[in-house]
Amino acid sequence: MQSRMPLLDKITRYIVKRKGKQIRPMFVFLTARMFAEMNESSYRGAALVELLHTATLVHDDVVDDAYERRGFFSINALWKNKIAVLVGDYLLSKGLLLSLENKDFQLLEITSDAVRRMSEGELLQIEKARRLDITEEVYFEIISNKTASLIASCCAVGAASVKEDAATIELCRQFGEKVGLAFQIKDDLLDLGDDDTGKSKNVDIKEKKMTLPLIYALGQSDEKTKNYIIGLIKNSSDKPAKVAEVVRFIHEKQGIAYANQAMERLKNEAFLLLDQFPANVYRESLRELVKFTVDRRK
After folding, report:
1. Residue 96 maps to a domain
2. How many CB atoms lie within 10 A of CB 274?
3. Considering the domain boundaries, does residue 1 fall inside one?
């Protein structure tokens, strides 16, 4: 992370001190260890994933005009958008160079594909947000690319760092994809929940994002009600009373329950894939990590 540029060093120190749960590197380590002893490639793979993830978060805050991240000021809030974009680019380049310098070409291929998919998912979400016409199928396409792709790449990277079997690496990727989908649905639910998560509530509605609970609730409504709710989101998402009305509508139409069922189904599908791997303490730790992703409170 070090640079000869003092400003860059100052900003990267700020980022490192405010690191999050670091769930993604854990998926790399546990997947690798499930098959064999970890090696330097495993550690580099985890570092690569975390660098890419952090870069996307810095860029996301610019895209979303967000001034807080994990309870602290975002990079763009403190140093403005231009510097934030450049810092994100720097983190991305550090991850790429880490792989190239050590000839971890397969790891680089896996993670580069995830970055491509994340960009496509973000752009698709922005495009659909203008019309608020997202179907459940499109929703899953968005979160598969935007969120699940990186967790899928973590599991594939972990396996690829210790194994050369393409079929096993692909199974690990599929496992991570299921976990990533469940992870995003949990985020949707936390945004609508009553628990004190330390995060702002109802941000998705304020930002006109169509989440699974809302999509299902709209699907259970007549055309008049559907148009009314969409109108509130389009024109009154800055009014707390109107946002609260949308949240009540989602609860009344069982959107929360439906999303919980979908999340549980994906978790169980992930476990079926996990059961195909060697039975050891690392597999069970992965199982517990998956449970954490769907049971977490923030």
Report:
1. yes
2. 21
3. no
Block residue for tokens 């000869």: 4
Number of domains the chain contains: 1
Residue 248 lies in a domain: yes
Q: Which of 88, 94, 264, 269 is nearest to 171 (CA)?
A: 269
Residue 195 has pLDDT above 70, yes or no: no
Nearest alpha-carbon partner for 55 in 97, 105, 104, 101: 97
- Facing residues of 73 across strands? 68
Lowest mean pLDDT among 25-29, 30-34, 126-130, 229-233: 126-130
User: What's the Cα-to-Cα distance from 88 to each of 124, 142, 225, rounded to whole Å?
Assistant: 21, 22, 42
Contact present, 66 and 60 (Cβ < 8 Å): yes
What CATH number has the domain bearing residue 30? 1.10.600.10
What are the C-alpha distances in Å from 219 to residues 202, 226, 250, 251? Answer: 20, 8, 11, 13
Is 81 within the bounds of a domain?
Answer: yes
For 227-253, letters b (16+ CB in 10 Å) and e give: eebbebbeeebeeeebbeebbebbeeb
What confidence score (pLDDT) does residue 51 get?
86
Spatial separation of the C-alpha atoms in residues 161 and 46, rounded to whole Å: 10
> Is the pLDDT reported for residue 67 higher than 90?
no
Of the CA atoms within 13 Å of residue 124, those in its CB half-sphere come to 19
Q: What is the pTM of this model?
A: 0.87
Whether 213 shows a pLDDT value over 90: the answer reads yes
Print the domain residue range for 210.
6-295
Helix (H) or strand (E) holding 72: strand 72-73
Lowest mean pLDDT among 16-30, 138-152, 178-192: 16-30
Q: Which stretch of 44-48, 72-76, 228-232, 236-240 has the lowest confidence by average pLDDT?
A: 72-76
